[in-house]
Amino acid sequence: MDKTALIASLKKIVEPYVQDKEAFGQLSEETRFIEDLKINSANLVDIILDVEDAFDIIIEDEAMDQMLTVKAAMAIISEKVDG
Amino acid sequence: MIGNDIVDLAYARQMSNWQRPRFLDKVFSATEQHMIKEAEDPERWVWLLWSIKESVYKLIHRNMQRSFFAPKRIECVAVTPTITNEAVKFVVHYEDQTYFGESQLDQAYLHSIAYAANKNPDYSAASFSLEQCDYTHQQAFIRRELLRQYAKTEDLAVERLSIQKNISGIPAIYLGGVQQDTVLSISHHGYFAAYAFIK
């Protein structure tokens, strides 16, 4: 899956939960959901569920464990979608 | 070691829909889901268990110096006496470790404090209601309150104290430029904030 397209769809999923809009404006692969975007940890569950729905994948608990950054989320989605 | 977590119940209702499909499955073990489903007030149980698990996560995070997201594996196995009380004690399992703690249960918020031994350490904790819920306000407010209390406990000038987070996101108190050993935990959610530190 194209990286630019992937990051764009991920941004769309994450945006409603972001509390630091400025950090969101500077989003990169290194951005951390909780520390940088100030997303509530309960909303991290929503992001995971939204990602599952959007890409029609299932994220197992082991993969979820690391889903704390844009980079990790992209890696998990790519692996599931591209196989 | 200590960890604490506060949940603003009205804010949680506004920000999260715990009834959406698969939400409970992602967060709670079978035992925990049973506690929730059997309850008279399942929503209160959802957020009580959430705050308990988060408080334990913060303690483990501080210990490991590494972030992870495994709400289901941090399993609450007991809450006593019952959720209708103003305070409860809890027991949590994570891997081969057992953690303990206590929660204050208010109509508007739930505040959980976790520790590593079955005897509560000598700690200072407090919770506050806030006028605004943006994170800059939350963060400034709770840091100020914690430092005020810490200064009083340690008999120090509050102007010389500050709180900084390390690269893993773990907060520490600094006196002048020198990091102190104090183990502390900060939490904010919606219109509530809380801290706990070991004296």
Structural notes for this entry:
The complex is a heterodimer of chains A (83) and B (199). Chain A has 5 helices and no strands. Chain A has helices at 3-14, 21-25, 41-55, 61-64, 70-82. The N and C termini of chain A lie close together (10 Å). The mean pLDDT of chain A is 95. Chain B has 199 residues and is α+β, with helices and mostly antiparallel strands. Chains A and B meet through α3 of A and α2 of B.
Give a brief outline of the structure.
The complex is a heterodimer of chains A (83) and B (199). With 83 residues, chain A is mostly helical.
- Largest sheet, strands/sense/barrel of chain B: 5 strands, antiparallel
**Portion in strands of chain B:** 25-35%
Oligomerization: heterodimer
What general form of chain A does the structure show?
Answer: globular
- Computed over alpha carbons, the radius of gyration of chain A is 12 Å
How helix-rich are the residues of chain A, as a percent range?
55-70%
Sketch the major β-sheet of chain A.
none
The computed structural class of chain A is: mainly alpha
Q: H/E series of chain B, N to C?
A: EHHHHEEEEEHEEEEE
> Could you give the order of strands across the largest sheet of chain B?
1-5-4-3-2
- Which percent band covers the strand fraction of chain A? under 5%
Question: What is the distance, rounded to the nearest whole angstrom, between the alpha carbons of the first and last residues of chain B?
Answer: 11 Å
Strand count of chain A: 0
Q: For the terminal residues of chain A, how far apart are their CA atoms?
A: 10 Å
* H/E element order of chain A: HHHHH
Give the proportion of residues in helices of chain B. 25-40%
